[in-house]
Amino acid sequence: MNRILVAGAGPVGLTAALALARRGFAVTVCESGDALAAESRASTFHPPTLEMLDDLGVGGELHERGLLSPRFAYRDRREGLIAMLDLAVLGDDTRFPYRLQCEQSKLTPILLDHLLRYPGCGIEFGFHVAEVAQDGGVTVTSADGRTVHGDWLIGADGAHSSTRRATGVTFDGITYPERFLVASVDEELLDWLDDLASVNYVFDPVEWCVLLRTPDHWRVLLPTPSETPDEQEYERLGSRLRGVFDPGRPWRVAHAGMYRVHQRVATSFRTGRVLLAGDAAHVNNPLGGLGMNSGIHDAVAYAAAIATGDDAAIWAAATDRRRIALEYVQSVSHQNYERLRATDPDARAAHLDGLRAVAADPARSRESLLRSSMIASLRPVPA
Ligand SMILES: Cc1cc2nc3c(=O)[nH]c(=O)nc-3n(C[C@H](O)[C@H](O)[C@H](O)COP(=O)(O)OP(=O)(O)OC[C@H]3O[C@@H](n4cnc5c(N)ncnc54)[C@H](O)[C@@H]3O)c2cc1C
Fold it and tell me: What are the residue boundaries of the FAD-binding domain, all occurrences included (predicted)?
């Protein structure tokens, strides 16, 4: 049985591992942590990702843990609701015409549980990939000197990927001036704000934000200056939340985290018998929920290509996934960022009018949603 190595047990590495296991490969996942990460970063699953996870046999369990979100909203801080887009218009394009709101930390245990049912498949916790040698196959050495050998290595070890560094691939792009502050709150925003969807992009030239519902919390994402001390930002979080809605008391904040945000793409997604996937290959801002989703798409594409045994098909998958990262994921996520924070009043008004017109026209809604739901990144769509 051929063995494939996967670095990293995040959503992307474990999807790759399960997709390969289902195709009959033995798989070893090398994970630096002592357990799966509990941090809840990504929370939105788009329709094509739901299709892929369903094909891998984990869709039902993911749905049991998530919230269906058939609509999402564009709002303006001052004007309230601008447009509500309904994914039901994608009913002929996907068997899942909605977003599923569910933290990535709920997906990874499901994927691992399924992976471990396959003979020859396992995970090594506490295995920090330190060295990668290509010797016909690939030999990976951990920081504490353990080695594993396989035919291929999928590097899904996150934005600071050791796999990427070990193969000498550079990670070109930009870092945004702001950091993003994400607060998970124990409040019911539906009691406070009218016309809320589970995902709401809120435009404002000064204090734009995103309001997202997960099964356990509402989350508020706020931009934060680059250089201010973290403590200062956590201190003023309360007053910023009361700027979203003032209930006459402090909001109950369950936890908050600060993220520096980059737009970067690796110069190559393949080096010999090493493939890069997910955040190891590309990172982008979280606006639009594209990072984990596109990483899962990488994982599924690589598993299918490796299963062909055709070197040209594996090159094609790596090249295609890099093209999609550049042409689609980077461009849509950056456009989302620019629009949320636009300051020019005429440009803002034109954009908001454009969104109202799209929401009022099912054909234009479908066209827009095919792109934001990532369907258009994966396949030609009929008119
Ligand atoms: C606030 C926020 C919100 C987001 N929301 C969304 C969203 O709604 N939708 C979306 O699609 N994306 C979203 N993202 C992005 C998403 O979280 C990432 O794209 C996703 O986690 C990438 O998955 P991954 O498996 O590639 O990497 P990771 O989740 O980072 O997993 C990498 C794994 O590799 C391990 N590892 C690291 N180094 C090594 C090593 N040397 N050896 C072995 N193991 C190693 C780590 O411990 C980890 O388990 C968001 C991000 C943030 C910060």
Answer: 4-308
* DSSP state, residue 287: T
Residue written as tokens 């329709």?
47
Query: Is the CB of 377 within 6 Å of ligand 1?
Result: no
> Hey, what CATH topology would domain 3-67+102-172+263-339 get?
FAD/NAD(P)-binding domain (3.50.50)
Q: Which atom of ligand 1 lies closest to the CA of 156?
A: 26
For 149, the token pair is 């050998």
Compute the distance between CA of residue 74 and CA of residue 255 in angstroms, rounded to an integer: 25
Mean pLDDT by 10 residues, the chain (383 residues): 93 98 98 95 96 98 97 93 97 97 97 98 98 96 97 98 98 94 97 95 92 96 93 96 96 96 97 98 96 98 98 98 97 93 90 96 96 93 69
Q: Can you give the residue ranges of every domain in the chain? A: 3-67+102-172+263-339
**Of 32, 41, 103, best ligand 1 pocket probe by most atoms within 8 Å of the beta carbon:** 41
- pLDDT at residue 206, as a whole number: 85
Q: Is 259's C-beta closer than 6 angstroms to any atom of ligand 1?
A: yes
Q: What percent of the chain has pLDDT over 70?
A: 99
Tell me, using a 6 A CB cutoff, whether residue 97 lines ligand 1: no
Mutate which of 104, 142, 180 for ligand 1 pocket (most atoms within 8 A of beta carbon): 104
- Using the mean position of ligand 1's atoms as its centre, give its distance from the Cα of residue 283 in Å: 9
Give pLDDT tens digits for 29-78: 999 999 999 988 999 999 999 999 999 999 999 999 999 999 999 999 98
Q: What is the pTM of this model?
A: 0.97
Residues whose CB is less than 8 angstroms from the CB of residue 121 and which lie 6 or more positions away in sequence, other chains included: 17, 21, 26, 27, 28, 115
- What is residue 104's predicted lDDT score, i.e. its pLDDT? 97
Q: Where are the beta strands (DSSP E) in 168-318?
A: 171-185, 199-203, 209-213, 218-224, 253-266, 270-271, 274-276, 282-283
